[in-house]
Write a structure and sequence with these properties.
The protein contains eight helices and eight strands; from the N terminus they run ββαααββββααααββα. The chain is about 30% helix and about 15% strand. It is an alpha+beta fold and about 240 residues long. The longest helix is centred in the first third of the chain and has 12 residues. Strands 1-2-3-4-5-6 form a six-stranded mixed sheet, with helices on one face. Helix 4 runs antiparallel to helix 5.
Length: about 240
């Protein structure tokens, strides 16, 4: 049964949100969710394989849902990451937001659509959110959390074990035939914006140099320094 969430995410203009954690257990959910991460023909073929038509049909039915599917991942200091499927007929996409109950509005960190904005997460932040073990989200499974947040990730400094880590998640949650090959391709391409460089500012918090990133203080549309700081603090374990 669909669990409707009548309370909107503060500061985020949305339709009625629907908590649908059961979608994460369907292997057909993941090819559509990870589609933007597969930038080349080889990566796309590895992602969809023989399930292309079925996965596309599944994704289109989800985007045609009368409510907006939303998934949550708890992070530090009582904050939550929200992954929202923006089911607008002419402006569909996936938004990644961060919110704390004391904040007057959620922070939009990335949007995965035709006008991609991001990335939002470094590799260390991505894996920390996946592995933190905090209860109260849509799933406690680290593999599902890693894949759920992967489209918001970009990082030039990916560690040696990253391919193995991502391959394990793909093997556990999807039906892809070559998890290692797909993991390598996804980490090489890293979505429409490609890898970005992360560094610690003079204020002591992490930012990146992405041209489409809200967490790049050099961009005109970047979050203000105080908001960048509280985002970084929430994503640090």
């Amino acid at each position: 049964m669909t669990n409707l969430k009548p309370n909107r995410i503060p500061g985020y203009d949305s339709g009625l949100l629907a908590d649908l954690p059961e979608l994460l257990d369907d292997p057909l959910f993941w090819p559509g969710h990870l589609y933007s991460c597969a930038q080349g023909e080889e990566a796309e073929e590895l992602l969809f394989g023989a399930d292309y038509d079925a996965a596309l049909d599944f994704h289109n039915r989800m985007l045609g849902h009368p409510h907006w599917p939303v998934f949550t991942v708890p992070v530090a200091a009582g904050c939550r990451l929200y992954v929202v499927y923006r089911n607008l007929p002419d402006d569909a996409g996936t938004d990644y937001l961060l919110h704390h109950p004391d904040w007057d509005r959620a922070e939009l960190l990335a949007s995965d659509d035709g006008h991609f904005m991001g990335p939002a997460l470094s590799w260390s932040e991505l894996t920390a959110a996946a592995d933190n073990g905090l209860a109260g989200g849509s799933t406690a499974d680290p593999h599902a959390r890693l894949l759920l947040l992967l489209p918001a990730f970009g990082d030039t400094a990916v560690p040696d074990g990253a391919v193995g880590r991502l391959a394990a998640a793909l093997r556990a949650r999807t039906a892809v035939e070559d998890p290692e090959g797909l993991a390598a391709a996804l980490l090489e391409d890293q979505g429409p914006c490609g890898p970005v460089r992360w560094s610690v500012t003079g204020h002591g918090f992490l930012t990146n140099d992405g041209g489409h990133a809200y967490r790049n203080p050099d961009n005109d549309f970047a979050l203000s320094p105080d908001r960048l700081g509280r985002v970084a603090a929430a994503l640090t374990f």
